Amino acid sequence: MATYLEFEQKIKRIQDDIESAKAKSDEAAIEILQVELEKEVGKTYKNLTDYQKLQLARHPDRPYALDYIKALLTDAYEIHGDRHFRDDHSIVCYIGYIENQKVMVIGEQKGRGTKNKLKRNFGMPHPEGYRKALRVAKLAEKFQIPVLMLIDTPGAYPGIGAEERGQSEAIAKNIFEFSNLNTITISIVIGEGGSGGALAIGVADKLVMMKYSVFSVISPEGCAAILWNDPTKVENATEAMKITADYLHSVKLIDDILEEPLVGAHRDKTGAVNTIKTYFLNQIQSLSELTDEERLAKRYKKLMSYGAYESLS
User: Fold this and answer.
1) What is the C-alpha separation between 186 and 183, in angstroms, rounded?
2) Domains parsed from the chain with CATH numbers
3) pLDDT above 90 coverage of the chain, percent
4) Close Cβ partners of 239 (under 8 Å, ≥ 6 residues apart)
5) What is the signed CA dihedral for 37, 38, 41, 43, rounded to 10 degrees?
6) What is the DSSP annotation of the chain?
7) Mind listing the pLDDT tens digit for each residue in 233-265?
8) Structure pTM?
9) pLDDT (average), residues 111-133
10) Backbone torsions φ then ψ of 114, nearest 5 degrees
11) In sequence order, what are the residues at sequence separation of 6 or more whose Cβ sits closer than 8 angstroms to the Cβ of residue 272?
């Protein structure tokens, strides 16, 4: 059963009416309702608020990293463990092919259903997860394999054990190492990009976001609790934080926005998969035309521009 958010209820009612008409084989009604559905979808999704985009980024039907990996890769083989402590299931790593292009994929996986969510730690990686990601990235560098990273996390796990095993050090080391990784890297926010948990696999030649994804330094709920001590102000926090793809692209904090199907990736997963595949293959071709020195210099210049400022005095 599809899940519909509050602002999607009109779409749900029309969809239910279409299913009823199909059961009655009422072709005339189906045709009328399909036109009505297209109009309502256009009206709803072309006027989304920032908070509604946040809800879409967290939509339970939205494709997760493993959904994309299974749809994109052929001859896929999973790589486990950080060779220091254990295998963190909230970060998944695969080697395989996207069409004829060999690729290493690193993704943050939230999990579906109580059992799987617990296994994946709700998509909140431990330090060993980030160390696994770095190990895989270094392996890709050794064999000159492009790396595709899929960001989708509420944030790095803040538990005592994670802190004892060096959570902040693991994130900082990934940011440092990925900034100078000598192979093509593309990082895509497919859902929720939460703080350092996202940055740890977000330093790349190309950092892009799906249209209905978000990227934030803290969750809107956390922001509302800190600033107003009132979790009900989450909508205000979402608007104030400017966490949508459109805004982040306008201030040049991300490179590109990947257009999703109008109804969102959660309603058209095939369309979303094709969007990522096309973008990845096009960027591989474009970035392959640069020398290693040119590509690394371009990446360095981009990273340094994040801290640029102008003096008004």
Assistant:
1) 10
2) 6-47 (no CATH), 53-305 (3.90.226.10)
3) 84
4) 49, 50, 51
5) -110
6) -----GGGHHHHHHHHHHHHHHHTT-HHHHHHHHHHHHHHHHHHHTT--HHHHHHHHT-TTS--HHHHHHHH-EEEEEE---SSS---TTEEEEEEEETTEEEEEEEE---SSHHHHHHTGGG---HHHHHHHHHHHHHHHHTT--EEEEEEES-S---HHHHHTTHHHHHHHHHHHHHT-SS-EEEEEEEEEEHHHHHTTT-SSEEEEETT-EEESS-HHHHHHHHHS-GGGHHHHHHHHT-BHHHHHHTTSSSEEEPPPTT-TTT-HHHHHHHHHHHHHHHHHHHHTS-HHHHHHHHHHHHHHTT------
7) 999 999 999 999 999 999 999 999 999 988 889
8) 0.92
9) 96
10) -55, -50
11) 63, 68, 210, 260, 261, 265
